[in-house]
Amino acid sequence: MTDTTPTIVLVHGAFADGSGFLPIAQRLLADGYPVVAAPNPLRGLSSDAAQVRALLDSIEGPIVLVGHSYGGAVISTAATGHPGVKALVYLAAFVPEQGESAQSLVEKFPGSTVGESVKPVPLPGGQVDLYIDPRVFHQNFAADVSPEEATLFAITQRPATGAALGEAAAGPLAWQTIPSYNLISGADRIIPPAAQEFMAQRSGATAQVVEDASHLVFVSRPGATVALIEKAAKDHA
After folding, report:
1. Keyword set for this entry (predicted)?
2. Is residue 21 helix, strand or coil?
3. Mean pLDDT for the chain?
4. pLDDT above 90: residue 110
5. Model confidence over 20-64: pLDDT tens digits?
6. Is 182:208 a contact under the CB 8 Å cutoff?
């Protein structure tokens, strides 16, 4: 690889953390790409995006910015106007338009199990943390990974606040000016595939559907995930 090889920055979504990216990070590193897994606080869309943006500012050279699920909304805001970000990759992710939230997008099409899956934990001050109930994590969030893996992901999940998932994106959005790529999980029970396809088409993204894939498509299908990330990197090297 050369000095123009982009750094791949991975941004996790709600009910997850950076450890889920290990299978794709190993493959990207083996192929010569620098990789950074960004911590996503999951406290509020604008504040989460500001923290990711600060990390982007610390990276020299080109960047391919990757977001899963709610992380897609975060990267759509964090990368706006950033000169280093050459491509956006959305993995079973939200791609909001101005005024849309993760919550409003997940409700736009039928088929999501989020409403029946989340377990609220009230916080001091009146806010609430949301978790995926471990009893339904496997079938609703990670149906195509092993039960043993799903149990571990359920144990290590990080909650998002209700405010974060309900906060509307402020414009302009990065995908309006930066080329984007969407990996659509064809059997997703969190963000319905129809919603993912709608957002991909609306944003003019290069899109690929992974049939029978769950919301954790990057865990169950690391090969397809890495192939799309590396396509974005090579297309905009």
Report:
1. Hydrolase
2. helix
3. 97
4. yes
5. 999 999 999 999 999 999 999 999 999 999 999 999 999 999 999
6. yes
Hey, where are the domains in the chain? 7-235
Q: Classify 93 in phi/psi space as left (phi over 0), alpha (psi -120 to 50) or beta.
A: beta
Q: Are 209 and 184 a contacting pair, CB within 8 Å? A: yes
- DSSP secondary structure string for all residues of the chain: --TTPPEEEEE--TT--GGGGHHHHHHHHHTT--EEEE----S-HHHHHHHHHHHHHT--S-EEEEEETHHHHHHHHHTTT-TTEEEEEEES---PPTT--HHHHHTSSTT--HHHHEEEEE-TTS-EEEEE-HHHHHHHH-TTS-HHHHHHHHHH---EEHHHHHPPPPSS-GGGTS-EEEEEETT-SSS-HHHHHHHHHHHT-EEEEETT--TTHHHH-HHHHHHHHHHHHHHT-
Six token digits for residue 215:
């919301």
Which pLDDT value is given to residue 211?
Answer: 98
Which residue matches tokens 């790409």? Answer: 33
Say yes or no to pLDDT of 109 above 90: yes
CATH homologous superfamily of 7-235 equals: Alpha/Beta hydrolase fold, catalytic domain (3.40.50.1820)
* pTM of the predicted structure, to 2 decimals: 0.97
